[in-house]
DNA sequence: CGTTTTACCTATTATATCAGTATGTTAATA
DNA sequence: TATTAACATACTGATATAATAGGTAAAACG
């Protein structure tokens, strides 16, 4: 049931961009260094964020990436869903899945539907701005 | 985020046993035929159910497996958790995980904790008896 | 007693996905 | 025209999944 690095890193990229948001383009190299993730690997992840119009890229000097909308307009569930392909717990609940012939007799289908729904509701209730550091909240854990 | 066949098949085995519960031992071959799953593969799954005292086995003629407790005493979340190893969405929330040094600054930890919790609450709210066919409910889907 | 039956035990394997690396190309700026 | 940084494509090692194969132990039956 683990969320892969693609989904997790995508959130970290977006949070990083939201926290360093100055309307300028941010180099991927900067993000990679701050987040301690391979720049090359991040490229493949940012590519998807660009394809889904969550961020925009600009090439050349002074280029980089920036958010294409406000952090509170970027839905966490949506991002996770396209980065992971799906968040459904079983294949038959994924989009574009071929209808299961056993569905009419399936004892577990409603259980899985319910699980799928609560995951959907929960993840959809967050935006990137909900995950961004506010004041010094992040240090409350330190004694 | 997919639940593997081990978790799904385990539920199907338990539901099958609950529906054919006559206090007698049921041969794995029967279950394998009804569920259309390889008997050999089911063996490795039932083994875990035996280890966790959910079912008991008896060898020889007239042997097989039966539930070691009533269906309404078998918790779905518990079964899924030990069959899957864990249902946590991120490794740092799994049992016995080494503490993450970044936890104090992690922007996403609370989000993942919340997700883990709703999955836990939901799956723990079901028992096998909730999944068993009641009357002809399973055919309600058929027009 | 010995044959059948069925659970139990220990490898081995094909396939796919994950997580990343490597190398090169295009476009924007200075 | 050189530099910068995004964009594109191909490849790779490791790991997990979903099984299969082949055997051993114990309970019943005749």
Distance between the termini of chain A: 33 Å
**Structure summary, number of beta strands of chain A:** 2
pLDDT averaged residue by residue of chain A: 93
Low-pLDDT stretches of chain A: 137-143
**Which class best fits the helix and strand makeup of chain A?**
mainly alpha
CATH hierarchy, class of the largest domain in chain A: Mainly Alpha
Could you tell me the radius of gyration of chain A in angstroms? 18 Å
User: At CATH's second level, what is the architecture of the largest domain in chain A?
Assistant: Orthogonal Bundle
User: What fraction of residues of chain A sit in β-strands?
Assistant: 5-15%
Question: Within the CATH hierarchy, at the fold level, what is the topology of the largest domain in chain A?
Answer: Arc Repressor Mutant, subunit A
Going across the biggest sheet of chain A, name each strand in turn: 1-2
Number of helices of chain A: 6
Oligomer description: homodimer
Question: Largest chain-chain contact?
Answer: A-B, 38 and 38 residues
CATH superfamily of the largest domain in chain A: Winged helix-like DNA-binding domain superfamily/Winged helix DNA-binding domain
Helix content of chain A: 40-55%
What does the largest sheet of chain A look like?
Answer: 2 strands, antiparallel
What is the general shape of chain A? elongated
Elements of chain A, N to C (H/E) = HHHEEHHH
How many separate domains make up the residues of chain A? Answer: 2
């Amino acid at each position: 049931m683990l969320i892969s690095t693609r989904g997790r890193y995508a959130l970290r990229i977006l949070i990083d961009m939201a926290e360093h948001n100055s309307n300028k383009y941010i180099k991927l190299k900067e993000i990679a260094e701050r987040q301690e993730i391979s720049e090359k690997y991040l490229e493949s992840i940012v590519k998807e964020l660009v394809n889904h119009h969550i961020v925009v890229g600009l090439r050349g000097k002074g280029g980089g990436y920036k958010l294409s909308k406000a952090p509170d307009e970027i839905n966490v569930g949506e991002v996770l869903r396209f980065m992971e392909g799906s968040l459904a717990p079983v294949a038959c609940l994924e989009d574009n899945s071929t209808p299961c012939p056993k569905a009419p007799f399936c004892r577990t289908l409603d259980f899985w539907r319910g699980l799928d729904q609560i995951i959907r509701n929960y993840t959809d209730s967050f935006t990137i701005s909900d995950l961004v550091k506010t004041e010094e909240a992040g240090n409350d854990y330190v004694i």
